[in-house]
Amino acid sequence: MKISIGSDHRGxxxxxxxxxxxxxxxxxxxxxxxxxxxxxxxxxxxHEVAHAVAASRADRGILICGSGLxxxxxxxxxxxxxxxLCHDAKAAEMSRRHNDANVLCLSAERLDDHPSxxxxxISTWMETEFEGGRHQRRVDQIDSRVDSSASCHD
Length: 154
Ligand code: RB5
Known about the structure:
The chain has about 150 residues and is an alpha/beta fold. It is built from seven helices and five strands, in the order E-H-E-H-E-H-E-H-E-H-H-H. The chain has helices spanning about 10-25, 40-55, 70-75, 90-95, 110, 115-125, 135-145, and strands spanning about 1-5, 30, 60-65, 85, 105. Helix 4 (about 90-95) runs parallel beside helix 6 (about 115-125). The radius of gyration is 15 Å and the shape is globular. The model has no long low-confidence stretch (mean pLDDT about 95). D-ribose (RB5) binds next to helix 3.
């Protein structure tokens, strides 16, 4: 699978470990940075990865920042992106089975010292198939409502 990966300065170490894991599993990785511990702005990286996935230049994306929150908020602004912040393998599984998540967001603060959890999250997220059926209808509703926020009143 073609995977676009990116992190801010807080996530560079975790990005490097995950890139190693994915490469050894035979995936094709495109690294959108950042490449050092110098402070940078996560929305710029989120935009790069989200657009690579939305434009089908990558099959899936992975984004890492300190909390994972900023990356998920930023990535979900891109049409056709369903970015899921997952702290464990169960969330990773459900994000694929029910939500067809195409971007995985991770928290370096939570996961830097827990390589076995990282392994579980990555392998589960990469291997779990979308169930389709009623979930396809709901995913279609997410994607079709991207521009309709102006109609929300309360
Ligand atoms: C960077 O200090 C931090 O704000 C960022 O990594 C992330 O946690 C934002 O959501």
